[in-house]
Amino acid sequence: xxxxxxxxxxxxxxxxxxxxxxxxxxxxxxxxxxAVSRRIKGLExxxxxxxxxxxxxxxxxxxxxxxLFQRVRATLDYLEESLExxxxxxxxxxxxxxxxxxxxxxxxxxxxDFGNENPQTSLRLLTSDxxxxxxxxxxxxxxxxxxxxxxRWDLTxxxxxxxxxxxxxxxxxxxxxxxxxxxxxxxxxxxxxxYERFNAHWISFRQWFDRLSAKQRVKPPAPRxxxxxxxxxxxxxxxxxxxxxxxxxxxxxxxxxxxxVQVGGEQLSTGYGYYLGLPRHKTVxxxxxxxxxxxxxxx
Length: 299
Description:
Elements: H1 7-19, H2 22-29, H3 33-47, E1 52-55, E2 58-61, H4 63-83, E3 93-98, H5 100-117, E4 122-127, H6 131-134, E5 141-146, E6 153-167, H7 169-174, H8 184-187, E7 192-195, H9 205-212, E8 225-227, H10 230-239, E9 243-247, H11 252-256, E10 261-262, E11 268-279, H12 286-296
Parallel strand pairs: 3-4, 3-5, 7-8, 7-9
Antiparallel strand pairs: 1-2, 5-11, 6-9, 6-10, 6-11
Helix pairs in contact: 1-2, 1-3, 1-4, 2-3
């Protein structure tokens, strides 16, 4: 049925619903009142349902008209939002891509600060854990989990990956644990919070224990809680559910404000890190360089 309805009819219907007046809808769309009436009548005929109740000069939506208006408005809003990426912006638009954990734990508040200081610049953040999405050259800047090399991006280290168990002070206090004195064997007996590894280079608690407890021969324990994302694991640790494996650079804010503390003295430097990338094969706009410099200055 939709293929037989002119798409313009939905735009006319939307304007008529918003104004509840065919004359005003026509002025918005630069068509006559009669043209609005014809398109509404044609839409009603196609759908086999009355959309408006007409009482003299007053209009009201029928129940079916109200349902259709809600769906048409949601669709038009979605299309308008989708087109934003193709419209020129007065101060330019910067497209930056980062993983979910980086976006949530580190990047988001820094983009907010940059936006407040540069109100003429629009920011578009792509959050994805898919490497091809992150490394797409459609982005102006990227933050990649890497060992420092990429064929299409010039990478500068933002945060080296250093992993250490972390927990909320309240969790440690409830178990009488001295965070500075706890041993790796004792950590293995606590409530461990882990996450699913979707990248072969990511480190979870099993790999952490394997690398650091070779001499102690601590058997890698099964986690008490396991989450689908790293962000959810950190949030659970902040709530006091147990001990998570903290990437210290990403959770700097939680460590500074005391929501999390390091547990024990063992840290693992993985050789990987989070790198800020500039494209090698396209010109970098001045506003992109401003954001690049601002993020580098935050490390």
